[in-house]
């Protein structure tokens, strides 16, 4: 995706905003503002990277020296304040920020900061050192920007949804009722099939979880081997939950599907259809003009009416973009108004009487007249049922 | 001393009434529990609380509580309902309940203030005006520097799995480079898979920079493995939450003299640094000696990147082999040497290894294979 269009959108919004400058913190914000995919930054917090963006100017990146050439190569950023590593890299960042604020803004200027991303200690020092500027929370402003996707982001998310879905479907064909296979093997097959469709599965939360039988009763089986699978064989009769998150050009997929190895009993079919009905109700509920909270309350009421007990504590969905899970959330209390070109990962789950978690996650695009599930390679109104043999 | 006891002593010595830890690495350190990709979800909050006297508690989203209990955690786990409201309301409500139950509504709580967002801590301050939240990051980092035997064993296991993972991956690559062309994505995925196959429990950073881009630190995995010349792999992996941080240099085909010299130059600095890893030496003095030797021998050393760092429940942690870190090495520290140099043609050379500081000197933890020379990949027979 050409990040320039997102960049232009941000620039335009900044020019119209009450902020004289922005301090961009938080890896997800950094990725959104710079157009990069550096998933490792989440885990290397003591070598922080910040952006300083003055209204009417180009953003300036504060980063370790070693990252500068990489960021020049893969991001839209052109200006850098690199710092040498030290025993206190936070302090190095703060020093650079203070210099930039003093050089680039006048006393009394308003500087927007995402208070949900800047760490408490850095913010305290910054306030102490630059007392004559007004730091204003920009959390909602940034969230609002990120929530509504540009046409290029929409196209990218369509591709991502389709490729990930295709990856899950493709890997499912490698499992048969009679064939033996471990969860690890199948987990790897899901990843590889996504990679074959040119998804990036590097690192951390690029998840390919395959949970079967007893393991399907847990949200995170074989902890701390999250999504790795191990030696458990996927047995005939097992219910298999497949969850996949992958990334392309910095944007994420987030899907979950059900596979039945063998006997799809009428009882299972009934349960699956309940899930499908609720999922369809969620999709219908996601209309421009209503709030996320209203959608969530309506779905909860519908589930109650249908006597379906959804997974406790798990929201029925959330947005998706430069992270696999972000605002707005389809929960009671999120008053974000749903608008055209928002994307959601809807997440409908229930626990079977035998304990397994049935879970369907789909990526949904909100259009002018309502929402649509994107990326189905096959019809997921039915679970994937393995071929008898191959 | 066990980590739980260390934390008790810490709480007592600092005059605290407890610790409230938000950072996933601090939580792993304090509990031995790894949360599912907690770093990667900035709007999913969790907390680890340890009170005076030693009792401990986890607060996590409902989706994570079973994962905590499955990691031999027998003390209380509280979960909150993410359906309750937008983050972090449900988390804060649950935290409020816990602190009230524990009668911890006044006093001093140590927090890792560099790991909690300003909005959240501000809200917590509003809920508990009588609590003094004390920034404890630096003191915690200092405590974490000295590892227990169990921590060192986990880092060593991660180091060995890292090597086995890379060897497995390049054994598949050897003989398969020219035709039809092995992709970078496949190479790094194979590193990941082989680490898992050798018992690794988590994979982090995965990168390989190739061909004419080898002056860069990182690139997304695009294109094919180079058919000629140097390339570098960088990756991190964990064993029950304890990390190894790897970088290795490989060459496809016969290396040139310049390439060999480039690696040897890096090794000169690394060997020097290894010889200095002993109790009583300061981190800054190691860095300074490495830099002086590089200058004296006209080796292009990226001094701005330091010469190494600690390893543990995070991929990069204190102490740091940098000009300003006066930390004195002591038994039980684990240092990852991370010396970055450039060949005359601009290829970035990195070769990282981890060392435990012992009574006499240091012990290599990533011992499975010696990487002091370039790993040469030859052959063109088949794909496999």
How would you describe this structure in keywords?
heterodimer; A: 390 residues; alpha+beta; Creatine Amidinohydrolase, Chain A, domain 1; Creatine Amidinohydrolase; six-stranded mixed β-sheet; 21% strand; B: 384 residues; five-stranded antiparallel β-sheet; 11 helices
Topology:
The complex is a heterodimer of chains A (390) and B (384).
Chain A: H1 4-15, E1 21-24, H2 27-34, E2 50-54, E3 60-64, H3 65-74, E4 79-83, H4 89-104, E5 110-113, H5 120-129, E6 134-137, H6 139-147, H7 151-172, H8 183-196, E7 208-212, E8 239-244, E9 247-248, E10 251-252, E11 255-260, H9 266-285, H10 292-305, E12 317-319, E13 326-329, E14 343-351, E15 357-367, E16 370-373, E17 384-385
Parallel strand pairs in A: 1-5, 3-4, 5-6, 11-17
Antiparallel strand pairs in A: 1-2, 2-3, 7-8, 8-11, 9-10, 12-13, 12-14, 14-15, 15-16
Helix pairs in contact in A: 4-5, 7-8, 9-10
Chain B: H1 3-13, E1 18-21, H2 24-31, E2 47-51, E3 56-61, H3 65-69, E4 77-80, H4 89-101, E5 107-111, H5 118-127, E6 131-135, H6 137-145, H7 149-173, H8 177-181, H9 184-197, E7 202-209, E8 229-239, E9 242-252, H10 257-276, H11 283-296, E10 300-301, E11 308-310, E12 317-320, E13 334-337, E14 341-342, E15 348-349, E16 353-357, E17 362-364, E18 375-377
Helix pairs in contact in B: 7-9, 10-11
Report what the structure shows:
The complex is a heterodimer of chains A (390) and B (384). Chain A has 390 residues and is α+β, with helices and mostly antiparallel strands. Chain A has helices spanning 4-15, 27-34, 65-74, 89-104, 120-129, 139-147, 151-172, 183-196, 266-285, 292-305; strands spanning 21-24, 50-54, 60-64, 79-83, 110-113, 134-137, 208-212, 239-244, 247-248, 251-252, 255-260, 317-319, 326-329, 343-351, 357-367, 370-373, 384-385. Chain A folds into 2 domains: 4-147, Creatine Amidinohydrolase, Chain A, domain 1 (3-Layer(aba) Sandwich); 151-385, Creatinase/methionine aminopeptidase superfamily (Creatine Amidinohydrolase, Alpha-Beta Complex). Chain A contains 10 helices and 17 strands. Chain A has a 6-stranded mixed sheet with strand order 4-3-2-1-5-6. In chain A, strands 13-12-14-15-16 form a 5-stranded antiparallel sheet, with helices on both faces. In chain A, helix 4 packs across helix 5. Chain B is of the alpha+beta class and 384 residues long. Chain B has helices at residues 3-13, 24-31, 65-69, 89-101, 118-127, 137-145, 149-173, 177-181, 184-197, 257-276, 283-296, and strands at residues 18-21, 47-51, 56-61, 77-80, 107-111, 131-135, 202-209, 229-239, 242-252, 300-301, 308-310, 317-320, 334-337, 341-342, 348-349, 353-357, 362-364, 375-377. In chain B, helix 10 packs antiparallel against helix 11.
């Amino acid at each position: 995706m050409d990040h320039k269009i997102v960049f232009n959108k941000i620039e335009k919004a900044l020019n119209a905003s009450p902020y004289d400058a922005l301090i961009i913190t938080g890896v997800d914000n950094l990725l959104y503002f710079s157009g990069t995919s550096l998933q490792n930054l989440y885990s290397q917090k003591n070598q922080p990277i910040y952006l300083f963006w003055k209204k009417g100017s180009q953003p300036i990146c504060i980063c370790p020296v070693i990252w500068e050439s990489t960021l020049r190569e893969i991001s839209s950023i052109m200006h850098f304040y690199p710092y040498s590593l030290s025993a206190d890299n936070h302090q190095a960042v703060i020093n650079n920020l203070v210099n930039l604020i003093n050089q680039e803004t006048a006393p009394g200027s308003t500087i927007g900061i995402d208070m949900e991303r800047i760490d408490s200690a850095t913010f305290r020092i910054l306030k102490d050192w630059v007392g004559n500027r007004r730091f204003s929370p920009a959390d909602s402003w940034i969230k609002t920007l990120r929530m509504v996707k540009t046409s290029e982001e929409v196209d990218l998310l369509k591709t991502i949804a389709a490729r990930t879905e295709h990856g899950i479907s493709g890997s499912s064909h490698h499992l048969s009722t009679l064939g033996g296979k471990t969860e690890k093997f199948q987990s790897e097959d899901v990843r590889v099939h996504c990679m074959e469709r040119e998804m990036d599965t590097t690192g951390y939360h690029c998840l390919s979880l395959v949970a079967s039988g007893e393991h399907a009763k847990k949200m995170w089986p074989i902890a701390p081997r999250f999504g790795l699978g191990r030696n458990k064989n996927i047995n005939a009769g097992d219910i298999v939950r497949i969850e996949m998150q992958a990334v392309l050009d910095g944007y994420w997929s987030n899907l979950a599907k059900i596979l039945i190895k063998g006997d799809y009993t009428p009882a299972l079919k009934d349960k699956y259809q309940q899930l499908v009905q609720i999922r369809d109700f969620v999709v219908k509920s996601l209309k421009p003009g209503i709030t996320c909270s209203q959608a969530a309350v309506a779905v909860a009421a519908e589930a109650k009416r249908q006597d379906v007990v959804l997974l406790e504590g798990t929201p029925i969905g959330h947005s998706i973009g430069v992270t696999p899970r972000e605002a707005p959330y389809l929960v009671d209390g999120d008053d974000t108004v749903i608008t055209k070109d928002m994307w959601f990962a809807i997440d409908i789950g229930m626990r079977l009487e035998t304990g397994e978690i049935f879970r369907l996650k789909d990526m949904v695009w909100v259009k002018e007249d309502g929402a649509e599930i994107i990326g189905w390679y096959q019809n997921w109104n039915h679970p994937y049922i393995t071929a008898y043999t191959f | 001393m066990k980590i739980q006891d260390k934390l008790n002593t810490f709480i007592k010595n600092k005059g605290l009434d407890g610790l409230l830890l938000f950072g996933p690495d601090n939580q792993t350190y304090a509990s031995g529990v790894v949360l599912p990709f907690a770093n990667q979800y900035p709007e999913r909050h969790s907390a680890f609380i340890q009170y005076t006297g030693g009792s401990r508690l986890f607060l996590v989203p409902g989706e994570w509580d079973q994962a905590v209990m499955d990691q031999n955690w027998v003390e209380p786990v509280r979960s909150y309902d993410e359906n309750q409201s937008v983050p972090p309301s449900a988390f804060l409500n649950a935290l409020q309940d816990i602190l009230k139950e524990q009668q911890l509504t006044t006093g001093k709580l140590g927090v890792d203030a560099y790991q909690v967002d300003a909005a959240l801590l501000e809200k917590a301050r509003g809920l508990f005006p009588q609590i003094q939240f004390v920034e404890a990051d630096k003191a915690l980092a200092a405590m974490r520097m000295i590892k227990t035997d169990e921590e060192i064993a986990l880092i060593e296991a991660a180091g060995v799995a890292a090597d086995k993972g890379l060897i497995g991956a390049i054994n598949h690559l050897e003989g398969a480079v020219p035709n039809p062309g092995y992709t970078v994505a496949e190479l790094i995925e194979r590193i990941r898979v082989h680490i898992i196959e050798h018992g690794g429990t988590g994979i982090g950073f995965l990168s390989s920079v190739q061909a004419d881009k080898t002056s860069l630190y990182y690139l997304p995995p695009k294109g094919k493995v180079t058919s000629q010349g140097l390339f570098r792999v960088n990756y991190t992996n964990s064993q029950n939450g304890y990390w190894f941080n790897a970088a290795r240099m490989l060459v496809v085909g016969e290396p040139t003299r310049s390439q060999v010299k480039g690696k040897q130059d890096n090794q000169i600095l690394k060997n020097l640094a290894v010889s200095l890893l002993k109790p009583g030496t300061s981190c800054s003095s190691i860095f300074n000696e490495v830099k002086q030797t590089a200058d004296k021998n006209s080796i292009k050393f990226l001094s701005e990147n330091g010469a190494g760092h600690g390893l543990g429940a995070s991929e990069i942690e204190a102490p740091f082999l940098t000009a300003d870190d006066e930390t004195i090495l002591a038994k039980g520290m684990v240092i990852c040497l991370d010396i970055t140099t450039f060949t005359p043609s601009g290829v970035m050379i990195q070769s990282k290894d981890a060392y435990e500081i012992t009574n006499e000197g240091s012990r290599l933890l990533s011992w499975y294979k010696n990487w002091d020379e370039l790993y040469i990949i030859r052959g063109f027979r088949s794909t496999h």
